[in-house]
Amino acid sequence: xxxxxDNPDEYKFGRxxxxxxxxxKGKINNxxxxxxxxxxxxxxxxxxxxxxxxxxNTALHQSKDRIKDELRxxxxxxxxxxxxxxxxxNGPEIRDWLxxxxxxxxxxxxxxxxxxxxxxxxxxNVSFGIKN
Length: 132
Known about the structure:
Blueprint: H1 8-13, E1 27-28, E2 34-35, E3 51-54, H2 60-76, E4 81-85, H3 91-98, H4 101-109, E5 114-117, E6 123-128
Parallel strand pairs: 3-4
Antiparallel strand pairs: 1-2, 4-6, 5-6
């Protein structure tokens, strides 16, 4: 029997738990296997090819209109997503609106599939799914 002090992982994760490392995308967590940072087939966490929109110094109602316009344009141009840079002041308001029912109705009315995610406090990303 192993000593808990000598092999703490055995007691933490169990003896029959095999630690397999899959190659691919995702972060490495403390159990040495990869976990996806988000779900789906899009490259969540990788916003390199996203269109960037600066929303600093704009009010919430102006940001809503700009977000809708930019999402329509990016979706019709078949871009993978849009990165909205809003800063910390307007960030929570914009993020709350993007998670609201009114935004979901807008997305549904345009027959889009969109996923909202963020890497930090000052940006919010919208990734598009496959067109129907």
